[in-house]
Amino acid sequence: MLEQSRSQGFFQTYGCLSRRRMLQGVAGLAAVGLPPSAVPVPEPPKQKTVYISFLLHGNMCYDRYTKQEIREKFPSIYATGLRALKAYPEVTAHIDFPGLTLLSLKRYAPWFLEELKPLVDRRQVVMAGCQYAASHALASDEESDLVASRVSMELMRRELQSDCATFFPQEIVFHPQMPHIMNQIGVRRLIVMPDGWDRPRRVQGIDGSAVDVFPLDLRSIRLGQLEAYYDSHADGSFIMAGGDFEQLGDIAAYVAEIARLAQKGKIIRWTTVERYTQEVGIHVTCAAPHPFGQAREDREPSPSFSRWTARPMDMNWHGHAVKALDALRAAGFAHAAAALHRIGPVDVPLKQAWTTPPDNPWNAYFEEVGEFPGPKPRLAPGGEPTVLSRAWHHALIGLNQTPAAGFLGRRARCTGRPCWTPPAPIRTRCWRASHNRWRRASASLRRAVRAMCSR
User: Fold this and answer.
1) What does the H/E/C string look like for the chain?
2) What pTM was computed for the model?
3) 8-12, 13-17, 195-199, 431-435 — which one is most confidently predicted on average?
4) Confidence at residue 111, expressed as pLDDT on a 0 to 100 scale
């Protein structure tokens, strides 16, 4: 009791003085003032911002029209979109061309490339590669996909953007080997359609290779849905809009809608894959997802990862493509083995070849090897066109399965052609003739390879 009473007395005497002194000190500080650096200033709330850009797929390796009509009309259609971009410097786009399309533009519409280059130089447009002839995953294997992608990237860097490091695969396919393939050709950024992503991620392939994957959404990132895109996505989201270059919509309407939303405090900002990586960064890393494409399909049993899987003939052509690519690979091994053991040449320069290319009447209407001899040296180890490099060039063009109905240029890619379709009896005869010719050619090539390997 005694100690308790002493404690109460001490508190009443000195505790009250302490509170009084504390209040006097606070009053003194208020009168004198604190230095500005010591006054905590609340940060204003950060303005939510989401990002957008166009992906424009320029593909003239097309089966809907003849090459004459494509080369006459497509560059002018592309130029309309290009001039709209030029009128709005804030609008950004990523334009991809297959290598064959780039060569066609260089030969038949060089004026278009001259108009494009200033937009690339100021980084309003970022160029992206695509497989050499927009080949589908349906008929490709890893090696042919790698070669087709490498040749396209070399052409793109030579003609339009020397530091090009972005890629857009035909039919927007993805499989777990793609990070490895992209690493082999110097690509750091890949544009595809992963389901449900709201921003880019760093994706690791099955061998540990990594590539930055940027999401594209052809269905929901549209002009009339921009406000819904803003409302339903978090700060820093970046999803691309767009599609085929020739179907680019009204850019002025996009600009007006984004300005209207900005007045409401909803900020949608144009960016590019390069700019976003520098300013926002990629903070999520994940393992490569299962194969997918632009179609919502049963992905596991589908070997194509694309929408071109409904035709029964697709699997027939796929089988022939596998055999032809296998023969090309075996011939390459035989050539390397023959050189190693000095048992004579297997591959020879094209000028020494005695073989005659088969006559193909469809070459008058569709792309064929003889039109663009330039890539053949790029496919030959020594830089000089050879029989084998010509075969590879022929295969890369033929692997365009648009829409998964042609095979190695030996059959007209006319399935679904609305404006120019030969009569059914002619198509049937040509299909049978080309089918039998390629079956014999594939068998003879395999026999020749076996003979070379047995020497």
Assistant:
1) CHHHHHHHHHHHHHHHHHHHHHHHHHHHHHHHCCCHHHCCCCCCCCCCEEEECEEEECCCCCCCCCHHHHHHHHHHHHHHHHHHHHHCCCCCEEEEEEHHHHHHHHHHCHHHHHHHHHHHHCCCEEEEEECCCCCCCCCCCHHHHHHHHHHHHHHHHHHCCCCCCEECCHHHCECCCHHHHHHHCCCCEEEECCCCCCCCEEEECCCCCEEEEEEECCCCCCHHHHHHHHHHCCCCCECEEEEEHHHCCCHHHHHHHHHHHHHCCCEEEECCHHHHHHHCCCCCEEECCCCECCCCCCCCCCCCCCCCCCCCHHHHHHHHHHHHHHHHHHHHHHHHHHHHHCCCCCCCEHHHCCCCCCCCHHHHCCCCHHHCCCHHHHHCCCCCCEHHHHHHHHHHHHCCCCCCCCCCCCCCCCCCCCCCCCCHHHHHHHHHHHHHHHHHHHHHHHHHHHHHHHC
2) 0.76
3) 195-199
4) 96
